[in-house]
Amino acid sequence: MTIKKIKYHRVYEDVIEQIENLILEGNLAPGDVLPTERELAQAFGISRGTLREAFRILEREGLIETRPGGGRFLNKNLNEAEDKKRIMENIERATIIELLEAREIFETGIVELAAERATDQDIREIEIAFEKWGKIDRDSDDPVNPDQAFHLSIAKATHNVVLVNLIDLHIDLLQKTLVKTVEIPGRKDEVYKEHYNIMQAIKEKNPLKAKEALLHHLHQVKQNILLNRVESNG
């Protein structure tokens, strides 16, 4: 049985992928008990708290079952590709919603600080990133596309390396959020306006206005995700 260490980002996806591989390799069958939390957390290289979050989603999807005093058991096989796709989409959506909730906390502070500290050069960098936003290529191999560059430029305007790293750490999920919403008819224009309002508030050195503009943007993104007004991209 081979288990690889998991990177911090996309943890839920990595966990289910490895459990799926254990099933496909014949190491787990319906009714089998899973290794203990301690064993799996150590093997995956993640905290037990993070592992429990992954189990919570897997249980909700009916893949595993927790029996009081008896551990966790594999509840069913993943025999159909459609089942795998649906589960992965649900996990990805749940992860994005959690990111949006976190962004309401940490990114509001980022835009407020950017509005207070941004230099003329910082603002120019934000404007350049914004001007490129309309050229987003969802199939690009560029690790930092215009949407990501826009968020990073604002973080850099805080002149706080920890806040820049927070945005950089979640770049992958920021891109997934964009892909899941930008194809909604009219949504790209809405996001353009929402980003414009955030940028203008920073240019005006107005922290409160910047915070309100960001919260409005995140609320709109969350509503589009929750209402399932998106085309699944697998």
Provide a short characterization of the protein structure.
This protein has 234 residues and is mainly α. Helix content is 65%, strand content 3%. The protein has a two-stranded antiparallel sheet with strand order 1-2.
Can you tell me about this structure?
It holds the Pfam family GntR. This is FadR family transcriptional regulator. By secondary structure, the chain is mainly α. It contains ten helices and two strands, in the order H-H-H-E-E-H-H-H-H-H-H-H. The protein has helices at residues 11-24, 37-44, 48-60, 81-117, 120-131, 146-156, 161-169, 171-181, 187-203, 207-226, and strands at residues 64-67, 71-74. Helix 5 runs antiparallel to helix 9. The longest helix is centred in the middle third of the chain and has 37 residues, at 81-117. Mean pLDDT is 79; it is low at 137-144 and 229-234.
Layout of strands and helices, then pairs:
Layout: H1 11-24, H2 37-44, H3 48-60, E1 64-67, E2 71-74, H4 81-117, H5 120-131, H6 146-156, H7 161-169, H8 171-181, H9 187-203, H10 207-226
Antiparallel strand pairs: 1-2
